What does this fold into?
Amino acid sequence: MSAIGQFNSGTSNFPVVFFDGVCGLCSHSVNWLLARDPEHRLRFAPLQGATAAAMISSDLRDRLDTLVFVRNGTTYIRTAAVSRILMALGGRWQMVGAMLWLIPFPVRDLGYRLVSRFRYRMFGKHDACRLPTPAERAVFLD
It folds into this structure.
């Protein structure tokens, strides 16, 4: 499943990465993306925040086990989101994202679901959502 829905919100003209704000792996992933997005193509918001409430369905917000990516009104989850995020970064990451997309959906998502199931045990869980540094505030929506 590549896309799971549409939204009609003017909240952001940029692609938005929604992540579990208390997940250690998700926080590391956001840091990784920030380091590879010097042109600030992406925006970030926790699934627990007001931006997520305005832009994505409650069933996705309640399922904190998935990364959600919204671009041009289309919502992607799990590995579809990862692939589209990498493509949005451009450069060599665009090619990596396209190669990930070529892996059959059930195989891609099986690996994602396994990591997702054990992510708190492997990477920890924070008491509160990740707060952006002053330099990052422009790309965080909540």
Notes: The beta strands are 5-6, 16-19, 43-46, 68-71, 74-77. The first strand starts at residue 5 and ends at 6. The chain has a mean pLDDT of 86. The radius of gyration is 14 Å.
